Amino acid sequence: MCADSAQWQQVNRPEEGRATVFALKSTLKLSGGRTVDIDGQGFLICYRGRLQAWKNECPHAGSPLDWIPGQFFSEDGEHLICHTHHAVFDPASGDCLSGPCPRGLYPLPFREAGEMVEVPVTA
Ligand code: FES
């Protein structure tokens, strides 16, 4: 395996208005120099024909956004909703449109690879 492929994982391209959830490792640096590996998630969406990838971590209190695993969109499909305190996000920009968030969603890189999409292993 080359070094570059170790940084990416392939996931299915989501259908319009849907999301594909994927595992995402993070390393937290503690005082004193220790590090802790954390298992997190990212999610890839298709909104109005365009893909976007975000960390599944609400910028308000850090909880996962999905109200049912893999369900991020509002009923009308026009927004992403955090299930914890109901912050509302723009699916295209990640901006927080309403709710207690101090900022928008954390973007992740992605690259299209034929029928699949490559997303990062770590963030
Ligand atoms: S944790 Fe998402 S709005 Fe509070």
Automatic annotation (TrEMBL):
This is Rieske domain-containing protein. It comes from Mariprofundus ferrooxydans PV-1. PANTHER family: PTHR40261, RIESKE DOMAIN-CONTAINING PROTEIN. GO terms for molecular function: 2 iron, 2 sulfur cluster binding; metal ion binding. It comes from the Bacteria. Keywords: 2Fe-2S, Iron, Iron-sulfur, Metal-binding. Transmembrane segments: none annotated. InterPro entries: Rieske_2Fe-2S, Rieske_2Fe-2S_sf. Residues 20-119 form the Rieske domain. Pfam families: Rieske. Coiled coil: none annotated. Gene3D superfamilies: Rieske [2Fe-2S] iron-sulphur domain.
